[in-house]
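Page 37, continued from 36.
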């Protein structure tokens, strides 16, 4: 079983405009609401691929109720921890030229909330995969992911993790199955700038040497790299019309885990991950399995040298 963990979920409220003018009344041409949060996006993509998964996290209030009901309508199993506070609302504003996200803070969590949540890990077993993604509410402290990872490893399960910067590096000693920084995140982590693809190779290898089992570096419209202990692979980009980039990275991780959990074939998992991320970018919301397959068939992967 794959479990996704979203510690700070959100109701994402999308608003589209032709143009946005500050200081004036702007009337939207389209609005929609979807369950949000990186782990929840992973669950939604896994569901699109018809891969069983369970969404974990903290939810509360009418926004939390909306998230739970929306996911269950999509056939996603949920085992959220109910809290007193209100799940946040994030506003996503899209114009013809820009995408802007206005993200709110999450609710305060009590020690009882935390203890109730930790019991969800008691049933983990060998072969399970837990995907951690996104921010941690301030009330949980800086080291909460470390605690959760130890619980996962104690049960003999695997974990994937998608968090920012130096916090990601701290988790590598625990040997995550997959991490997926994008180019900008990798530049920030190591305080460098990349001018070409080959510049990335030493840093992908460094992440492996620090403990990651597999590393995907996404390069937006320039494709993606997969670093394994044995080889490095490059997935050429697929051309298309960008409709909504929110959740593309989460979809890539979900696609990788979906295939890996069934075949343990890292190259096929990489291709599936890139297909899911690509299909997400080219869709307003979550892509269909048919469209994901169409993208999969267009992806070309080649083995590349380590910058030679």
């Amino acid at each position: 079983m794959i479990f996704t963990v979203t510690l700070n979920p959100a109701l994402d409220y999308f608003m589209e405009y032709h143009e946005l003018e500050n200081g004036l009344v702007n009337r939207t041409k389209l609005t929609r609401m979807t369950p949000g949060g990186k782990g929840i996006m992973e669950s939604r993509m896994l569901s699109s691929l018809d891969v069983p998964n369970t969404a974990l996290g903290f939810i509360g209030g009418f926004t939390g109720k909306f998230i739970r009901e929306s996911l269950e309508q999509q056939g996603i199993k949920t085992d959220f921890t109910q809290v007193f506070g209100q799940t946040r609302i994030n506003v996503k504003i899209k114009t013809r030229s820009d995408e802007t996200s206005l993200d709110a803070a999450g609710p305060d969590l009590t020690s009882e909330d935390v203890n109730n949540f930790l019991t969800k890990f008691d049933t983990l077993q060998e072969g399970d995969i837990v995907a951690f993604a996104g921010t941690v509410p301030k009330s949980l402290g800086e080291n909460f992911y470390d605690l959760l990872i130890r619980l996962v490893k104690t049960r003999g399960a695997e974990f994937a993790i998608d968090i920012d910067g130096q916090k990601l590096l701290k988790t590598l000693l625990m040997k995550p199955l997959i991490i997926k920084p994008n180019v900008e995140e990798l530049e920030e982590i190591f305080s460098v700038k990349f001018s070409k693809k080959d510049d990335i190779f030493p840093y992908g290898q460094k992440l492996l040497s620090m403990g990651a089992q597999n590393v995907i570096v996404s390069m937006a419209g320039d494709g993606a790299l997969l670093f394994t202990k044995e080889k490095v692979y490059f997935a050429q980009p697929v051309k298309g019309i960008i409709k909504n980039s929110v959740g593309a990275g989460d979809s890539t991780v979900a696609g990788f885990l979906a295939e890996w959990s069934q075949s343990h074939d890292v190259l096929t998992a990489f291709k599936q991950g890139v297909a899911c991320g690509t299909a997400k970018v080219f869709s307003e919301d979550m892509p269909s399995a048919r469209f994901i397959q169409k993208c999969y068939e267009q992806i070309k992967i080649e083995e590349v040298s380590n910058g030679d």
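The chain is about 35% helix and 20% strand. Flag for discussion at group meeting. Residues 248-263 form the longest helix (16 residues).
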